[in-house]
Amino acid sequence: DAGVIQSPRHEVTEMGQEVTLRCKPISGHNSLFWYRQTMMRGLELLIYFNNNVPIDDSGMPEDRFSAKMPNASFSTLKIQPSEPRDSAVYFCASSLAGAGKNQPQHFGDGTRLSIL
Amino acid sequence: GQSLEQPSEVTAVEGAIVQINCTYQTSGFYGLSWYQQHDGGAPTFLSYNALDGLEETGRFSSFLSRSDSYGYLLLQELQMKDSASYFCAVRSGGFQKLVFGTGTRLLVSP
Fold this sequence. Notes:
The structure holds two protein chains of two kinds. By secondary structure, chain A is an all-beta fold.
């Protein structure tokens, strides 16, 4: 079975450019999460969706960040304009939602973003 | 606020047993998860405790005490491939939302 697919795997761009990260969750999963990982701040939840609807975006650092999920099989995280401090590994994860039995999150391989 | 504390680094030798502790303070608690992450890789799920007690999965076990807001991951018969970072994570709400700890780097030496 295909896991969570993220693209690109690596992105190097100059400050001020727009960056778009893409994610395809596991088929049948109805929750999708975007995380950012850095040495200083660890693994931070940026935003998550349930059934394509944003539930909690309190982790989005500022207005330069935006995320969309137009359908159940695709999500984007956009940074515009990008800044050097946005350099990090960005992970997308998906799971089955529900208040009952725990369902683990399955992570993609991440996008390693470097802003020069 | 929500916070999870773990030791930053633990070292051990092959074949040994190591315990990685996690204490948490969260608003709302459904359960405690553990994830493993190798350098350059993605976090992968190891275990989950919703109730007090010990859960065993092969060489790995996880323990939870809800009254103490404390849990640990126990790794037995350590192998070199167990060298990785280990994160505890609290499920504090619906939709499987997790808050991750800062991670513990485990170094296994021959």
